[in-house]
Amino acid sequence: MCGIAGILNLDGRPFADEARLHRMGDSIVHRGPDGHGYFRGGPVGLAHRRLSIIDVSSGAQPMFNEDSSIVVVFNGEIYNHLELRSVLESRGHIFRTHSDTEVILHAYEEYGLSFPTQLTGMFALALWDMNQRRLVLTRDRVGIKPLYYTVCNGQLLFASEVKALLTERDVPRRIDYDALQAYLRVRYVPAPKTMFQGIYKLLPGHQMVIQQGHIRIEQYWDLTFSDEPLSEQQCLDDLEALFAEVCRQHLMSEVPFGVFLSGGLDSSAVVATMRKLLKTDPMTFTVGYSGSEGINEFDYSRLVSEHVGTAHHEVMLSPQQFSDWIPKLTWHLDEPVGDSACVPLFFLSQRAREHATVLHSGEGADEILGGYSIYKKMLLLSRLHASPLGVVAGLFDRLGGASSVGGKLGRYARHMALPLQDRYRGVSSLFLDGIKTDVVNPDLRTSPAKSSFLEDTFHTYFQRVKSTTELNQMLYVDTKAWLPDDLLVKADKMTMAASIELRVPFLDHRMIEFAAKLPMALKIKNGETKYLLKKVMEPYLPRAVIYRPKKGFPVPIRQWFQQGLAQMAQDLVLNQQSTVSQFIDVRVAANMLHAHQSGQMDAADELWSLVVLEQWCRTFEVSA
Description:
41% helix, 6-stranded antiparallel β-sheet, 17 strands, alpha+beta, 624 residues
């Protein structure tokens, strides 16, 4: 696990200023405290920060092929590198290290630009082919590893984190209003945009090729669905075998490792499967909160630890000193992500680093196997939409009645009147009040019918999978947007802040492709989400864990906004001098905070999103 960065002169002139590479690399030292390396050749410069995991003694980067005509810097892990190495050696390739990085070089030599299809793992990489004078930037299939880029002064700049790009003084720090509008609606910014105007994320499953000054971006992988006529028993057997094989490969490491154990099904499944593969008890780590016993996961995580057999560690968090840790958290995030689960993951990673360098989590199971309750709600609304009740709701909505009804009732009335693709905006929709629409989306002043970047993004994803079931449509949308741009951003940035590599077995592309073939009835059956995974885990985990209500990654943010965070929100956001006041009516936000404190409503998600946004503006000195 590492951090990468680089600069390419698009006009082909030689790149000479290595000091710029050092500044970029130094800004992301937390991603790779174990070593660094730099390369300058022709028009390109590359920087690498290393966190040593595999081939600790000889896996340094940048790494070259046999004749030094190809060089690569790489962030991630290639889990099938031993199998792929064997194939490549049989075809005459000569290896000098045991590193998975070297496999990338020889795979490129053997397969050309299609080489990412041969890789199983998580990766963001930059490869410079001196003979072809070609730079290749590649990101893994679902976006486990980040890769940002911008074009400035005739140069392409790229890096694992935005802050490395911002070491260049000429890179502007201005807000992208399309991204801002999306953030205020769903708490994150869907790719390819970021909150920084002109800075982009390379889409998951995509590859950028730059040659002779021309930039082209191509997709090399996409998720496709096909309900195959398989029996339930066959699917059970196949899932258990595949998950065990994936976990076996994810265990490769020369450094201590463990598992983030929430006490829910997904992380418990990872723990139970890895315990079967190991001769020793794996380390597990759980977070809880002082003064918030009702929201703690300790009881369930202890139950799993005792049942399976792990070396268990518990971390207790206190809501004190918000002013100290919120700026640090926001700096590591790079761009605002209004997901309060960043908080426990940030602190849990800091504590886990005392014991382990590699951690595993259950991230991704919900998105591939149908785990969120919102899926059931949306499917119910679809049935109502197609019923006579839906016709009435549609007429009611057109007459303006639904918009006049407040709260959840009005929202569901409006939703019932709409087809799925017009009402589903993913797991984390906010419906935030008080947005100054004419500021956030100035185009609406001249073109009121213009759709937003967020709407266009979700509609595009829905159109790609309109021929499959509605459940699969929602899974596709969340796999393309919410998963890489909220969950995986949070997972990568919060763990790398502590110099920890996080691995996510459920998001191995073999697991994703297997799940995409499952019949809908094996994802949600008789109202039970993640039905197939629960059946597979019955012999290995307590039923109290498997069939407990889903909690996600619980955070007592609601209580915190009735304590110290309320004052911070007051000082940081709710004043006319704040940057946020340019986009949000602070009177509406103040009323929201008051209603939250008095118990009239739960506005914790909205308030947290505004706190993070304002702190981000201050941390990175962003102008509107």
